[in-house]
Amino acid sequence: MKIRVWLLATAAFIAPAAAALAQSHPAPAPSQPAPAKPAGPATTVEGVTVRADPNAVRADIDRRSYSVANDLQATTGSIADALRGVPGVQVDVQGNVSLRGDSNVTILVDGKPSGMFNGDGRADALQQMPADQIERVEVMTNPSAAFSPDGAAGIINLVTKRARRGAAQRSATVRGNVGTDGRYNGGVSGSMMSGPLTLSGDAGFRHDRQEFDVEIDRERFDSGSGQFLESRQDLESEGTGDARSLRGSLDYDINDALRFSAEVRHRAMAFDTRSEEAYEGEDAAGAIVSLYGREADTTFERANTGGFVRLRRQLEGSEHDLTGDLAYEHTTGERRSRATTVYDLPVQPDLYEDIRSEFAADTWRLKVDYNRPMPGDARLKVGSEFEIGSNEYDNSGERGTAPGATLPVPALTNRFLYDQNLQALYVTYQRPFGDLTAQFGLRYEAVQIDINQVTSAITDENSYRGLYPSLHLAYELDEDHQLTVSYSRRIQRPGPQDLNPYVVYLDPFNLRAGNPDLKPQITDSFEAAWQRRDGPNFLLATLFWRDSRDGVTDVVRDLGGGVFLTTRENLAESRAGGLELVANGKLTSTLSYNVTGTAFWNEIDGSGFAGGEERSGWTLSGFGQLSWQATPRDFVQLSGHLMGDRLIPQGEVKGGGMLNLGYRHKFSDKLSMVVTAQDLLGTARFEQVIDTPLIRERARREMNFQAVYVGFSWTFGAPRRGPERFEFDTSGGVPPG
Question: So where are the chain's domains?
């Protein structure tokens, strides 16, 4: 019933507007697109063309796009590896992504949300899924109202490689890479065009190995003795994982004005980890009173299957169209831990645990867009979006003295249901006023959330509505210089697990729970930027400021007896501002560079909960890449990234960095070899410090990121020549020819 009502409302909103506009403003006659600027001088040696690529960095009024085609780490690595080279994006060694220091980021694939890259398993998926099918990354720190306001820091859109009109009628590429410690990955992609029909598809796989050591030193204040009691926890872990992806799509031009598109895809990953842990805790006199050893085997699986159908109607005039898009996806996940704990102090029987967490999510999305050119080179976009999502979480646990001698534990058993319905209407209007181009946007969203904590017989619901404006201004100083100013209001909604009050058992001294009273975070984001393009060189300087309230953050509490509970709370407010510099271009005819630096100040107010206080400080981060076309066939690349210390409400996360090296040799236009080395100096690590009047903790995580890959790529059929065509197209279909 809700869907039917919303469809009628959508039709009532869009149809009259389209009809009125068609009558009052006849569509302008089709105009020829402006000729592209020359790509720069080309040099041909033995059939290999070397050309300065002007498309490595492109900017539109509401986004910037960065090609990863020449990032050798992305060729053999994961999506997380590819994102590390994108300006403004930081990815730590655990796969956690942030934009200018803010981890509240929405990740899209071809303009659509993906359950694979949402929720608690997102970091694992980004580190496991191969990146060789990613063509470019779009970064929207102030998205227009045409996009969902989810993600307080902005949107990262992963644009996959697609067939293009005018390319070879039939072509295919096969890739294979072999790495150290038993790592390997590869894939195949292909496309076929015949008349009005275009078929394309790809398949990829990745086998990875991880080793890491964790050291946690804690001090908790004991009110009885008036002293801090110390404890130490050491963990060694190693594991292997597999990821796979499949995609097939078709585009069929029914006639010159009507195109039908469809796609199905599947992504999945599985990881198996074995760990050994030792724990010791002291009393006020410094004597060890708690001592145990623990061995665990943990498996984690996550899968996402979905697809969409789309109908696009080209109306009279250029860039005048109506598009309807219906998408569905099903996401599942399971984490299972089997662990044996041997207690030395105090003496007690061994404990065997089998704990399992499962989830399943189904999401339907319907989107309708109407685009129309207007007089004065203006453009209007009107749209409606409807989303219905259903999430189910099941937790169960058994304990006993040994496998086969266990009993269910009610405290470890829980079922949680979360349903969310979203309706949105939006409009954007863009028009040039001489050298000034302005884009105005407004989005209305209504959200209905239903929560059912089945085990505890607790139900709750929440609904809220909001208006989310956006404004983008671009002023052309001259042909190569531009100034931009933008504003957007963003929201960060708590995820299902953020709201689930069920206490998740991690180990005997670490628990985690959600908070059903969380409110969504609201962020007002402002930017001012200057950019200059001089041939292949691109310079960008951006001043930014974000003002947020009710931010959702982790809070650690001492439950007594050395047991710590991590839960979620709303911050009173936080502010962040800084400067981001991007430089991309060529030093010589064969030497190119890509450099990014960000300096930002952050202030957070955590005084609303125990141990929280106002904290502020500066953070520096950066990325550098130097690429050398040594010969027309040989390409060498050195890259590195650095993340500075960043604040959390109860302390800080220490920074780190990584240095990588890559080499590519082209035997021909169809056959090439790539060699990459990751983390040359062995500096990949993660460290978090908590410092409050009641809790002091330092957690260090060192990972074996060092790896060397050797790979080959073969292309069958006519290779694509010339510079890559750039399109700001997020529809996921074949870009227009």
Answer: 2-26+53-717
Taking 60 as the threshold, does the pLDDT of residue 1 lie above it?
no
pLDDT at 557: 85
Closest to 648 in 3D by CA, of 103, 196, 185:
103
Could you tell me whether strands 563-570 and 510-512 are parallel, antiparallel, or unpaired per DSSP bridges?
Answer: parallel
To the nearest 10°, report the CA torsion of 378, 155, 78, 626: 70
Distances in Å between the Cα of 645 and the Cα atoms of 65, 603, 673 are 27, 13, 37
Query: Are the CB atoms for 235 and 198 separated by under 8 Å?
Result: no
Distance CA 173, CA 126 (A): 23
Other beta carbons within 10 angstroms of residue 190's beta carbon come to 18
What percentage of the chain exceeds 90 in pLDDT?
A: 56
Helices and strands in the chain, H and E counts:
5, 41
Only one residue has tokens 């180990």, namely 507
Strand partners, 428: 381, 441
Q: Which of 712, 659, 710 is nearest to 179 (CA)?
A: 710
Most confident of the ranges 368-377, 548-557, 564-573:
368-377
> What mean pLDDT is predicted for residues 70-92?
89
36: Cα within 13 Å, side-chain hemisphere? 11
Q: CB–CB of 657/679 below 8 Å?
A: no
Q: What angle do CA 641, 642, 643 make, to 5 degrees?
A: 130
Q: Is residue 360 within 8 Å of residue 332, measured between CB atoms?
A: yes
Burial of 434 (0-12, 13-18, 19+ CB in 10 A): exposed
The distance in angstroms from the start CA to the end CA of the chain is: 41
Q: Residue 44 burial by CB count (10 A; 0-12/13-18/19+): exposed, middle or buried?
A: exposed
| Contact criterion met (CB below 8 Å) for 658 and 705 | yes
Report whether 231 contacts 290 (CB < 8 A): yes
User: CA-CA distance, 662 to 637, in Å (whole number)?
Assistant: 5
Q: Is pLDDT of 728 > 90?
A: no
Please, which pLDDT band fits residue 166 given cuts at 50, 70 and 90?
A: low
Architecture of the domain delimited by 2-26+53-717: Beta Barrel (2.40)
Paired sense of beta strands 288-314 and 258-282, if any: antiparallel
Contact status, residue 555 vs residue 566, Cβ threshold 8 Å = yes
- For residue 335, the cross-strand partners are 300, 357
> What is the distance between the alpha carbons of residues 144 and 142, in angstroms, rounded to a whole number?
7
pLDDT (tens digit per residue) in 289-321: 999 999 999 999 999 999 999 999 999 877 899
Nearest to 416 by CA among 448, 451, 390: 451
* Rounded distance between C-alpha atoms, residue 140 and residue 153, angstroms: 9
Other CB atoms within 10 Å distance of the CB of residue 65: 22
